[in-house]
Amino acid sequence: MELLSGNEAIAQGAWEAGATIGAAYPGTPSTETMEAFAQKPDVYAEWCTNEKVAVEVALGASAAGARTLVTMKHVGVNVAADPLFTAAYTGVGGGMVVLAADDPGMYSSQNEQDSHYYASAAHLPMLDPADSQEALDMAKAAFEVSERFDVPVLIRSTVRISHTRTPVQVGEREAALACEYETDPAKWVMMPAFARPRRIVQLERIRALGEWADASDLNRRSDGTAAVGIVCAGAAFQHVREALPDASVLKLGITWPLPEQAIRRFAESVEALYVVEEASTYLTDAVRALGVEVSEPPHPLPRAGELTPGLIRTAFGIAEPASAAAAEGLPARPPALCPGCPHRLVFKELKRLRAIVTGDIGCYTLGALPPLACMDTCIDMGASVSMAHGFELALGAQEGRRPVVAVIGDSTFAHSGLSSLISTAYNRGAGTICILDNRTTAMTGRQGNPFNGETLQGRPSRELDLEGIVRACGIEAVAVVDPNDMMATRTALKEATAAADRLDVIIFRSPCVLLSRQKGKPYMVTSCTGCGACLTLGCPAIGKDAGTGLSYIDQELCIGCGQCAQYCRFDAIEQAE
């Protein structure tokens, strides 16, 4: 028996099922799944440039006969949707399992999204584990289902399942049955003449999957009072069990296709049927679509954010048990760029320029928060470059207008920023693009990417030439700048934004401070005048004394980067001896 997170358990289940190849793009809350899989013996695992590529790599390996695992967060499913929908036509060779990790509450995401809808739209079976043991068991079962029905299988987790550790009984690795590749254009070449017959195959598969879902023991029923029946799945089951211990519960392990007859039988056995789910109405709508009456609790369940037992009790009119009062008066701890972050001065100087900043997905998105407060948009991976081009087109050559600057990280640039840059260059767009190359994929835990050349399993690789790739797009104005140097950063941005008729790319290159975790001699405030310039950097190591109003530097947090000293006009910040 081991304590495993849901992510680790899915990796273990895939390994026990004989999966040999894993492909992913890191994204919280899914990241640790592929990292755990990569540590298993006799497997190959890689970070791909994006989720679409990961699905295509895995589908190719599946076609060749290997059992494959693909992992991504919910917004990654959007990127991967193109090959996923067609893979539902082609089917598989070796079993193929795709983890979609949803993020109710948006702890590390730009939206709330329910991946159940992708399963329904693409007609891909989906399994919903409610704890780590189920995550392992369902991962193993998913490979069998994939090969039995010739279809990729989705596993949906949420942040609570992905990151919570629960006891798991692990097993031994099973040898997957050999599946040799044979040329079969009618199965794998999805031109219209071949895709039409595969659609008929898909329809027959949907019928067979419905029968399987109804008979499967992955759905569990627990009988309590007949007065209240609850249909739920995934993490919601744990909350229901705690909040309503006396209720009868049908816990769905298969959420597409729904086990229609099992739901009908359960509904007939209770006086009132309720559906409990978080941040979505997928299950509610799907159960009602079966013609089953679904009651509403006395008070509505929230349609945004994670569920809790307390929220469920409130919805059903049950008083909360007495508990300790929450601590009051604690200082707020808003997220901030780390002390010494190489992105900080870029945002400081962009704010000084009054630039319109189109941002992207990464820890540099924190540049939108005070006191830097220097990001106007953040939509999805790669959008910064495309949106900057859109701003330039709309604003044109207005006299005295604010400069438009795109900001994107090195990993995100590889993910989807490069295609946006190619489009902008092709259409002879102008403006300034800042690539913040901190030599890693920092936000999800410092994974490798094509521009630092570090692979998931430490294999020999290539560090791609970022400057060369940008120049190959036809962009001549390419500069590489140390973002820790205030004057170099200021000068580069000023020159680039002044050239209104050309496309400039500035690569701000400096490693993430968490890569080496080395600290230099800390800085200290020697004779503060109280001007507050250093506070505008938003460095967590710099504070203001509540009594005197003067700045101070926390010696434990300061890493000795010296960024603050460059902004002090009174030379009141010096490095400690």
Describe this entry's structure for a reader:
Strand 17, helix 18 (486-498) and strand 18 form a beta-alpha-beta unit. By secondary structure, the chain is an alpha/beta fold. The strands form 6 sheets. The protein has a 7-stranded mixed sheet, sandwiched between helices. The protein has a 5-stranded parallel sheet with strand order 14-15-16-18-17, with helices on both faces. The protein has a 4-stranded mixed sheet with strand order 9-11-10-13, with helices on both faces. Helix content is 35%, strand content 18%.
What distinguishing features does this structure have?
18% strand; 577 residues; 7-stranded mixed beta sheet; alpha/beta
Mean pLDDT: 95
Number of strands: 22
Major beta sheet, strand line-up: 3-2-4-5-7-6-12
Give the overall shape, derived from the CA principal axes. Answer: globular
Largest sheet: 7 strands, mixed
Low-confidence stretches: none
The fraction of residues in strands falls at 15-25%
Enumerate how many helices there are, as a single number: 19
Quick synopsis:
The protein is an alpha/beta fold and 577 residues long. It has 19 helices and 22 strands.
